[in-house]
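Q&A log
Question type: sequence-to-structure
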Amino acid sequence: MMNAPVILRGLDGVRYDTDKSLIDIDRQDCEDSLYTFLAGAWKTIDPSGFTKGWPIEAIAEHLQAVVDGDLKRLIINIPPRMGKSSITSVAFPAWTWAQSINSATSGPGVQFLHASYAQSLSLRDSVKCRRLITSPWYRERWGDRYALTGDQNAKTRFDNNKGGSRLSTSVGSALTGEGGSIIVVDDPNAAQEAFSEATIDPNTSKGTIAAVVTLGMPLKNALTKADTTYSVSLDLGSLAVDKLALNQKLEANALKIVADNLGYRVKGDVKIGGQPAALDYRKLNDGGDADVRLTATLDDAARARLGVDLGSSLSGAIPFKLAGKIGGDKENRFGVEADLTAAKIDNLLPGWTKVAGKTTKMTFNVVQKPQGTRFEDILIEGNGALIKGTLEVDDKNDLVNAFCPTFSPSEGDKTSLKAERSPRGFRRTRLHQECDFGTGRSKRQSKDI
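Response status: OK
Response body:
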């Protein structure tokens, strides 16, 4: 039996369709709040349930300020699996086109340009956005505002009949003649490319070079490669090269480069993204991996520039040492030692807090592959805390799984932690704890967090 619409007659004698009235109320609420719109549209965007929280609400409020013209530039740094792409690249364009107020940044006439480090990610979110716009839930509320045009309705770009468009591309692609009223760059860099061999652009580089070249070449008719030896010693001064290390500018007052038949070495005190560091990089000509050693300190500003700003969960300067091998497009391996003594920690992991000044050390190994990054042999020790385990993220820095068989964020804790991403894409975290209730015996408890 089909549900018939409910018609009520008001005191003024006018007949009211209650279903339509409820839709009108919901439409106005969604137009007034991107956060409310996101909650209503989520079932179309992601099959998992919508989880309310202040981080998503904060992102929505700031994006609304962009549409209102109060913000011209906005940078969003947030941990993986928090819905950033679903909000900025899927829901945000659809909500903006639903606005009744028309301006350069509001209404169906807005032109969007979306870019990511990989074309596949841009296309994924473009398809989701178009699917949301053509969904019954959306068309029932805003179907009379605009319609997608038939002559330009593809995965990479779709237009509407009010002049609006949504174009998807990847970082570095040619966009001659294209533009947008609102430009969204979502995940511009792949995590595994942070230590890849960079290409130096002479247009964005400067400095002085003093070189001494020594060439050994015997005088004979038939020369071979093995007959010739060379050595090059370069002294670079006032050097500045964009995006050379960790996708940040590398600067050095004095940098030494030595090369010969066996390979080359770069060594000196540098600045990476404005942060002082000591660099030692060696690469042999046998086609093997490069060796790198880096010593630096990351403060709050440096972490923000690298896209790892964790807000109030982690603050303060963290000295660290990194040593490992760079395998080009294959695999990178690093060992990292970090001193967390000067850092303040507030639930960076569940239940883990620390005031600045309490001695705490952290070590781990990093294995970077094209499909993702694995953090192995994690050891955090000090101030009563003892945490051991592993963690893995995919090529978008989204959590795949984490397992800490020893998870004691404070002295006396006997717990373990396990987190994993389900096939539907959301994260499940489970905490196992041994408790003594005064009986002299331990009892094991488990709970989801």
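Response note: Residues 296-449 form one domain.
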